[in-house]
Predict the 3D structure of the following.
Amino acid sequence: MRKQYRSEIVAEADLADDPMDQFARWFRQAAAAHVFEPNAMVVSTATPEGRPSSRTVLLKQFDSRGFVFYTNYGSRKGRELGANPQVALLFPWHPIARQVIVTGTAVRVGRDETAAYFRSRPHGSQLGAWASDQSQVIDSRAELDRRYAELEARYPEGEQVPVPTEWGGFRVAPDEVEFWQGHENRLHDRLRYVRVAEGHGAAAWRLERLCP
């Protein structure tokens, strides 16, 4: 079940100064390599007591401020992030033997930003956000379908669906971003950016290589 990776060595000199710029490079390369859903990431959260949970979520935006995804704030991840904003993201780009691992802090995005994204979603996805009390127990699939049908009748295609009050985005501001490239003989490249404080609240990044 073990596979030997064959790829080019990643040199520190070839990386961008900022991890978000480097992520943009690798993201474009993953998309060009036709990795299935390169924006799929594993989001790991934990309770204040340290009990972890993970799930796959789609990244919807990234920029210099961090990585954005959307969810119901009453979902398990929403509740856990509300109590403990420390979060980890993993982009598992297996076909090209790469991973990107992010650790940071999640904060809610503003309602205007949430509303703009919500209105860009397909009509069915907007209705689905209302129909599902995410992570809550439901009696049956038939009950879920009934809720959706009622919403579909209330808000037919072409009619604006209001943004659910308990639905919105989280932005993960990274403290560390690791770029992992697989190689033969388990001699993988692991290059990690670590945020370091600079004067007046600005931030800089230290790049370090980790043993595989």
Q: What stands out?
A: The mean pLDDT is 93.
